[in-house]
Amino acid sequence: MGWVCCISYVFLAFLCFFCNLGLSADSLRPGESVTRNRTLVSAGGNFALGFFRPGNSSSSFLGIWYNSNNNTVIWVANRESPLPQDSEPVFTLGYDGNLQLLDGGGRNIIWSTNISGGGSTAAQLQDTGDLVVKQGESIVWESFDGDSDTLMPGMRLKVNKKTGKRNLLRSWIGSDDPRPGKFSWAMDPKGSSQFFIWKEGKPYYRSITLQLGFTYSAYFPSGGYAYYSYTTENDEVYFSYGYANTLIQARFTLTPEGRIQFLLRQKASDEWPKLWEVPATDCELYARCGSFGSCERFDSHSVCSCLEGFKPKSQKDWDKGKYDAGCERSIALGCGEADTFMRLPMMKWPDHSSSLGNMTFQECQMECSKNCSCTAFAYANITSNSAVNCINWFGDLVDLGHNYSSGGFGQDLYVRVHSSELNGSSGNDHSSHKNKRRLVAIIVASVSAFFLICVLVYILTCGRKGWVCKRASVRVNCNPSGKRRYRVVTPQFAKNN
Questions:
Q1: Is the separation of the CB atoms in 53 and 37 below 8 Å?
Q2: CATH code assigned at 248
Q3: Most buried among 37, 114, 157, 280, by the most CB within 10 A?
Q4: What is the three-class DSSP state of 56?
Q5: How far apart are CA 488 and CA 453, in angstroms?
Q6: What is the pLDDT of residues 417-432, one digit of tens each?
């Protein structure tokens, strides 16, 4: 029997050796650790957690990466505290319930989850790429809420309207340096339905004002559904997205240069094609044209112009392409019957809006008209309960864009001007010019939608020789409340013989 016992011990040692390598383990129990010789791998094999050294860096970090491609890291624990390359750090779940990253000597805590309220039973790397800590069956901490440069499917970019608490994505310093860079990406801390990119704490890019409750979904042959959602839940406003197809992988990332990129690939591929990014041009930079100035993009060129009824504060600077000073009124307001409102279609609404709640269009206009400091108003559905809201702006209008057809989200804006601004030919020319630009915008948006659908479907289902896209379209339906619903009609494909 002695030889049987010996073989048993050898077999157990063999198993322990491979357990230590983390070939199948996706969890840590209290007292268990990850070292340089061990990684955690999610149950489906999609993601791995362990120590890595990015590029030519002389430092090492604890992170999570795609298991099939460890060059693509989605989360880093010790971004602000790089470890020496020759150190022997330990990542463990302590008996106090906290994940801890310890230095080579095991004496100093480099990073910790700082959870209070009882011991945790396990930490698990899920197949979504999310590292979670559980107390019983409840998740008390997750990496999807932490500091990263990547927004993953199922992850929420969110802010609590009552507490102001939010998660923040931060860029890397460079491709080989995960330390926090100059740029951050988050929802508006004031709780408005838009998100920002900040550069060193100052607005760098602002999204359009989104419609709460908006959901965009698309169906692709053999690829299933993809969705993008912007909604609210228990005082929390959030943006999220996801894909039903398990053969593709998608991610949003904030680059070291301050751009949000949407990347999508087939699971077996090493390449990440870029499908979309913002800001794509100077026109999308925050307040590019100054106060009362509006930016319009023509191909790769950005053009600033003053709103109707306004002129450059400094024509000399304006002629040199310096727009920071913005525009000023050509004729001062009279604050009364001398004032009127000019309708500007297909606009990116300015920043710093105030909602006056649910009322009729005439009531909304009257509320702005009787307040001399009210500069503009808008009337649109931006809430999840289908209530049409009256939106007002006070003071200077900043970060405006016109001919704004991105996603079909351009909105009407009514700007306060002196009545005489509409009496001459300028008002008619303005209306005609706007209608022409709106037609161009619709055409551009339609062509862009068609192109994007073909690209997506090609990547998802038809990335094979001999297949061509024959037809695709996007249908936009409005229900009685005015809320947009987008449906992608399944593209038609044919074998090209």
A1: no
A2: 2.90.10
A3: 157
A4: coil
A5: 8
A6: 998 887 643 333 334 3
